[in-house]
Amino acid sequence: MSLRPLLDFLLYDWLQAEKLAERPRYAEHSRETFDAVLDTCERIAREKYAPFNRLVDTEEPRFDGEKVILPAATLAASRAYAESGMLSAAQDYDEGGMQLPFTVEAAANAFFALASVSINSALLTKGNANLLLVHGSPVQKAVFARNEFNGRFSGTMCLSEPQAGSSLSDVATRAVPDGDGFEADPLGPRFRLTGNKMWISSGEHELNENIVHLVLAKIPGPDGKPIPGTRGISLFIVPKKLVDTEGRLTGERNDVALAGLNHKLGWRGTTNTLLNFGEGRYPVRGSAGAIGYLVGEPHEGLRCMFHMMNEARIAVGTSATMLGLAGYYAALDYAKNRPQGRPQGKAGKDAAAPQVRIIEHADVKRMLLAQKSYGEGALALELYCARLVDVQRTGGAQAAAEAGLLLEVLTPIAKSWPSEWCLEANSLAIQVHGGYGYTRDFPVEQYWRDNRLNMIHEGTHGIQAMDLLGRKVRMEEGRGLQLLGARLEQTIARAAAQPALADEAAALTDAWAQVLQATQAAWAGGEPERALANAVPYLQAFGHTVLAWIWLDVACSMPADGSAAAQGRLAAMRFFYRYELPRIGAWLAVVARCDSTCLDLPEEAF
Amino acid sequence: MSLRPLLDFLLYDWLQAEKLAERPRYAEHSRETFDAVLDTCERIAREKYAPFNRLVDTEEPRFDGEKVILPAATLAASRAYAESGMLSAAQDYDEGGMQLPFTVEAAANAFFALASVSINSALLTKGNANLLLVHGSPVQKAVFARNEFNGRFSGTMCLSEPQAGSSLSDVATRAVPDGDGFEADPLGPRFRLTGNKMWISSGEHELNENIVHLVLAKIPGPDGKPIPGTRGISLFIVPKKLVDTEGRLTGERNDVALAGLNHKLGWRGTTNTLLNFGEGRYPVRGSAGAIGYLVGEPHEGLRCMFHMMNEARIAVGTSATMLGLAGYYAALDYAKNRPQGRPQGKAGKDAAAPQVRIIEHADVKRMLLAQKSYGEGALALELYCARLVDVQRTGGAQAAAEAGLLLEVLTPIAKSWPSEWCLEANSLAIQVHGGYGYTRDFPVEQYWRDNRLNMIHEGTHGIQAMDLLGRKVRMEEGRGLQLLGARLEQTIARAAAQPALADEAAALTDAWAQVLQATQAAWAGGEPERALANAVPYLQAFGHTVLAWIWLDVACSMPADGSAAAQGRLAAMRFFYRYELPRIGAWLAVVARCDSTCLDLPEEAF
């Protein structure tokens, strides 16, 4: 099963990605150049990623006392990715980039996530460098960002701490000015950092010359104490090895020490670490603390960090999606080849008849169609959001603003929905395999384990839900919600004009009305604690409604050519409307009445 | 968190288990003797099981070329269990048993599943020996069953084959008479078996003196060919080592060879094997084939094997349930101790305020209450079914027949419902732990992996669903369904009389009507293929309705003492009615209209 026809359909038939080349920034591009990028990524993923997906699961990163040891395949995958130019694909030509639309970049990266989601966490390096391009000084861009884009350095994002995961306002890492003249360092105002950072992906390894840590820390206020809350947070570049203004290693090791590797349920190709900053293991330049260079203004750290949040969350959603599709393709292949049992009904009663392949059983078909419906729908959503990023970057002022606002509303869904439902798809893929799916001889159990991460990192399900119901649907007096509603109406109008889609158009109209009503009812009392008590069921219902809309919009673009592919997508869309969308009633009911069964229960009663 | 108060409440306050001692078979028993059994099992589970649950996960069984190597803790757990007398707890006093009610046996075994579900698969040994007690000859009982009950031998169930998992009619293992006079062997008619058996738990190990395999195989018909279908299947005892009529090992190894260990996602404390019978690796007594002794009549193998099916499925459901509760207890403990973030609302806006423990967050409460609702509800269901087994065994003729019929209808739910929803509970337990839940430093990821087996073994979800909708709700013209309906009505009447439970009584009335209507609508066309196309959504809706009934019945027995425990259970019941039961509408809709979106989709469209 190849991903390519699905990507081609979504990119070109549905999203009309080739029209992006009409925009000045992408004027050198065409469908041909987009296809060339897709071809390259598909090939590298097939050759350097897919064959090693099980290997990176069984040969987990380990620390030998000096170095973190990774399989050779990890280095090869990481190099091949860097050499493809994908690290800097979105950058300007004069920065060495391709000025590739984000839509195409996201589509191309899907091949890697499908082949081996954890072998090469290039996402963080890109996010890190992109952030520096926006908020860093010219020297910081030249020294750090450029060397991340060319693959010499890799990057991390150091936000969480052992005692502060979802709660960044409790970051305790301190940054103090590094002596007199600290402000005059050409790499940026120089500080000394002390603290611990937890869950740092790729925090320690030997894959590149250097690691550029982007670290959130607090500069003490005039009273010497850290400023409470997120306002006190600043952002620093803390290189593992110190560099000069030309980006050359000075030979000095910075005081960033590996305190431990996290041993995970899945996603084992990516090293995950606890790092100690300034613990004194690698004393540097005669003072205590790890050397860090301020990025942007003091106390603006979170704002800088969140700049890349939408894209990072779209990337997480895409990873979850591709795991879902990877499981689907494996299950489909198995179902087409595994003989077992006989169909229900008269023909099935003949025990002497040969067994049929399990794809002929209705329940196996149901499990496969559910996976297709979740996975393909989620991919469409992710690419739709990626397209919004491009409009935000290159559209006219109003279009860009609208795209930005729509992204704010859709991003929690783009991140959370595939994390939940493509995980469910992976469970169904195991189920299709029966006992074999429970063994490590088949890939599906690993997909399921890998995918379980996605509801946790980059903001848990609960955080996404509170972001959606607490902030996104209310911001600018609900204008994001109205914009989304207008998009739904456009789709509904197109669908209603086609007799074959009229039922779904009506169902979507009704579902959206339920969502709006629940949103209003939740906030009618004006009490955040009660309004948000059922934020997760709200997120689930909102997500299902968004996916129903995406599927209907896709269906409106489907060729009426009677092809098997079109028939399959139409069935996946109908499955979603018939089996999935009706679930929203149960979720929204608790939201609308601010059900407080859980909220009110005292601790001792659990 | 201790399981004991919950068990005591369900056993004594709700099911009034001490009344079982009024029955002649259990007349020597009392609450005191029941409690003594529970005490012993709780202690052994705490000392010999729980400390080694992670160990048996990391030190998976391996084959050194001669022997299967297991951790020493596995042997210790297995011996402690045998020495407790629990292997023969249900047996007659003059067989060395305790004549313990199954209800109490099931409750006592819950401690082991909670502590380490896979370290000691005593279930199969018991099932094997119980089957021989019913269907074996006096010599077979004395030689094999008795030595399984006393722990000298262990037992397996060899049904599946690599090409025949769910489809037993395709069993290809052959059994041919072992020469002249084969019928006169004192251990039973002697055959030679040739074939491969897959997914055989505890198929090879050194924990006991001998392994008693119970093997399904086909005796060729007069034409020399195996009889097609399940009618051709016979049942054989195939000991790993041959024994004499006194149960002493003769020193001869039988031709049962380990062909491979299955490497699983979880449940790794239990060895799972592919066995070759009669491949010639251990030639025995000068002819080809493994020596096996017929149990019962030829061609009656499946009937014999299915005799123990209800109890085995209740045991699987109980395992799934206890994994769900194990995750809940771990998550509850974590939530009570982990500080993170601040509550929503005005009080939460003060960033300088200390962090709260996460159990104070509404969404964490929701995730905990869901786990409690799934896990405690499932345990109640399993014990209810166990109680039916006791009535079936020791009740008057009519009561026994009714209990048997109710068990037929409820067993697919008792097996499938906890497998699905206590797995979901385990996922929520991971989510409560955040990033820590994704690491192997906390137990919850293992519970989730272990629990994923339960939707697969002992009849997959799909098989349970077809059993329920295709057979159980229709057998004896729907009398099982009517009996269940009558039980629901009794509960509804009791609940309706209490103002605090009137809403739930009405909701259950409505839900049951929906189930009945969908059952009828599914079969209205009389086409099995269409009726059963949505058997799994039917199973899900039926299961949720049964659980709602169980919870309401439990609530009717709850003391109005205002205790925290009673308050918690009432909330868990209400959670189920408010958050869970409303889901059935979406599931039943596709059943009632025989939705054929999946069934009709041709293979090439996937």
From TrEMBL, chains A, B:
<dbReference type="InterPro" id="IPR037069">
    <property type="entry name" value="AcylCoA_DH/ox_N_sf"/>
</dbReference>
<dbReference type="InterPro" id="IPR046373">
    <property type="entry name" value="Acyl-CoA_Oxase/DH_mid-dom_sf"/>
</dbReference>
<feature type="domain" description="Acetyl-CoA dehydrogenase-like C-terminal">
    <location>
        <begin position="487"/>
        <end position="602"/>
    </location>
</feature>
<dbReference type="InterPro" id="IPR025878">
    <property type="entry name" value="Acyl-CoA_dh-like_C_dom"/>
</dbReference>
<dbReference type="InterPro" id="IPR009075">
    <property type="entry name" value="AcylCo_DH/oxidase_C"/>
</dbReference>
<dbReference type="InterPro" id="IPR052166">
    <property type="entry name" value="Diverse_Acyl-CoA_DH"/>
</dbReference>
<comment type="similarity">
    <text>Belongs to the acyl-CoA dehydrogenase family.</text>
</comment>
<feature type="domain" description="Acyl-CoA dehydrogenase/oxidase C-terminal">
    <location>
        <begin position="300"/>
        <end position="468"/>
    </location>
</feature>
<dbReference type="InterPro" id="IPR009100">
    <property type="entry name" value="AcylCoA_DH/oxidase_NM_dom_sf"/>
</dbReference>
<dbReference type="Pfam" id="PF00441">
    <property type="entry name" value="Acyl-CoA_dh_1"/>
</dbReference>
<dbReference type="Pfam" id="PF12806">
    <property type="entry name" value="Acyl-CoA_dh_C"/>
</dbReference>
<dbReference type="InterPro" id="IPR036250">
    <property type="entry name" value="AcylCo_DH-like_C"/>
</dbReference>
<keyword id="KW-0285">Flavoprotein</keyword>
<keyword id="KW-0274">FAD</keyword>
<protein>
    <submittedName>
        <fullName>Acyl-CoA dehydrogenase</fullName>
    </submittedName>
</protein>
